Amino acid sequence: MQELSNQLQEILDKDFIRPSYSPWGAPVLFVKKKDGSFRMCIDYRELNKLTIKNRYPLPRIDDLFDQLQGAQYFSKIDLRSGYHQLRVQDEDIPKMAFRTRYGHYEFMVMPFGLTNAPAVFMDLMNRVCKPYLDQFVIVFIDDILVYSKNKTEHEQHLRKILELLREKKLYAKFSKCEFWLREVKFLGHVVNSEGIHVDPAKIEAIKNWDTPKTPTEIRSFLGLAGYYRRFISNFSKIALPLTKLTQKSEPFVWEQKQEDAFQTLKQKLCNAPILSLPEGCDDFVVYCDASHQGLGCVLMQRDKVIAYASRQLKVHERNYTTHDLELGAVIFALKIWRHYLYGTKDNKLRNLWV
Predict the structure, then answer these.
(1) Are 223 and 229 in contact (CB under 8 A)?
(2) Would you give the end-to-end CA distance of the chain in angstroms?
(3) Which residue among 39, 101, 211, 253 has its CA within the 20 to 30 Å range from the CA of 82?
(4) CATH no. for 200-271
(5) What's the pLDDT tens digit per position in 95-128?
(6) pTM, 2 dp
(7) Cα–Cα distance between 148 and 2 in angstroms, integer?
(8) Architecture of the domain delimited by 284-351
């Protein structure tokens, strides 16, 4: 209760909230942050059900990392309570109301928990940083990554971004910013001049993951593991015994094949390879494989692995002949990596069965 009282007083003093007489009122909850402190959040699920969804596209993680090819220096800027730097329109303020034992309040700035908050903030940051996007800055919601090929460029790039943030009155949290790095943690990955690695903190979490006891726990594990599937050859094939247990029609019986799949995924994630960043648009080679357990492929460039991809077979595909499955693997690879392969020369598709 003391934490709630302190945080309410803090955001009242900052004029983020005000006393409310709104007929609405969402409950309060707390979320633990990385540093061990707690963030007060509002449970806006009922409001979100009635909200018209903003379809503003969030960028693909793979596309963001592809921009970092050749970068040697990095700086990461984290905005201070980024959402709270956006004002809510006057007519919408009553909808932001929440109730506590200390009173009824409403946010005048954008709170955490709104379904459209990430899209709205992403739109703002893209408009603010538009002059420098795809040149030396990556933006993902409230995280800003500045990257450069040498020290001189990095000094210039940093100055431009910091001046831009000051001009637009967007404020960073200095304790969470990192400057002049040769290796940076970003979006659950570690990036340096060698390529992309899995974040060691995530590896530790996977290593210590207990055997799932319910379908929900399996989904939770596969959710984290699936985020790094580009690092694992034949991920879908390995995960198939686990995926089956998440289906409602399947009784939850943990057998040796599930244990083997679980341990194999943990082992492969804990020993994940370094993936290279693409260099230019040429010399890509795609290797495809197919079986009645799934489709798999690997994208390579000049003998370096760029990414792995795989998927399980759909119900009707289980009746396909071998050569149809092989063709399906080729089509699958072309679809997911078309932005690397279409319109370029000297790229090759090879089937592992040949």
Answers:
(1) no
(2) 66
(3) 101
(4) 3.30.70.270
(5) 999 999 889 999 999 998 899 999 999 999 999 9
(6) 0.81
(7) 45
(8) Roll (3.10)
